[in-house]
Amino acid sequence: MKIALAVGAVVLCAVPFVGLPAFYESFLYLLLSAIVLATSWNVLSGYSGYFSFGHGAFFGVGVYTTAALAGKLGWNFLWTLPLAALTAMVLGVALGAVVFRVRALRGELFALLTLAITFVLATIALNAVDGGPGIMMNVDMPKLAPTASGVLYLLMLAAAALTLWTAYAMFHSRFGTGLFAIHDDEDVAEVMGVPTYRFKLAAFAISCALAGPRRRHSCGVRLLRHRGRDLLDRAGGQRGADERARRHSPLARAGGRRGGDHDAARTRSPAARPRSSAAR
Fold first, then answer.
1. Cα gap 151→4, rounded to integer Å
2. Pick from 156, 170, 147: which is nearest to 16 by CA?
3. pLDDT, tens only, 136-159
4. Cα(18)–Cα(244) distance, rounded to whole angstroms?
5. Largest CA-CA distance found in the chain, in angstroms, rounded
6. H-run or E-run covering 133
7. Cα angle for residues 229, 16, 88 (degrees, 5° grid)
8. What's the whole-model pTM score?
9. Cα gap 33→118, rounded to integer Å
């Protein structure tokens, strides 16, 4: 089993260096991204039974943390990832410290409350942070692979490996056993000595922290594609840009109308042409 895992890890790490088209790296990146998101959600909702519909709020907070630090303050992109996880974890702990104290907020009520947090944070971002379009980033990615898509793939592979290892370690620990007891019957687990409040709060914090850095890489995909188009225009597509600008200029539009009128006059049928004085 260990040998198979080692071989699989080597194969996955070698993907960006074998010269595959960027489509395969992007596809694997999306697959790993879904693994990170699902596994981080399962740490709380699957293990303890507290279904969270607000998972998007936590990686959304991480997105804005990275965008503000790297895009506005000029921080190194990699250094923003732990801080994005920390910010999402702090939000989860602050929410869980209040919600898990109230015994009535279980089951469907907890799910609806986490869903409401998502809409609240989305409204704040829309009206007080950026107005909707997002924060533009122009940062340099680390040179971990020959291509930009390969760099993002390796970052997401590391995030997926960390998330899966964390979930596996929790599953086989006393902590995981306590969460499963909460999932089966929280009242009985508390009577048997399981610190339910502390376990739920820790699971919520870990779930939010694992989800926090996930969308950084998605942000980087859009950034690199945008920068790639800029580089393409500067390197080889400047003539095409100049041609498009000339074609859409007011003079070009006026000339096109005059040319169109001239062509229409030339192609007018003989019957529609005015007769000469000799013909009369």
1. 24
2. 147
3. 666 677 788 888 888 889 989 999
4. 38
5. 116
6. none
7. 75
8. 0.71
9. 20
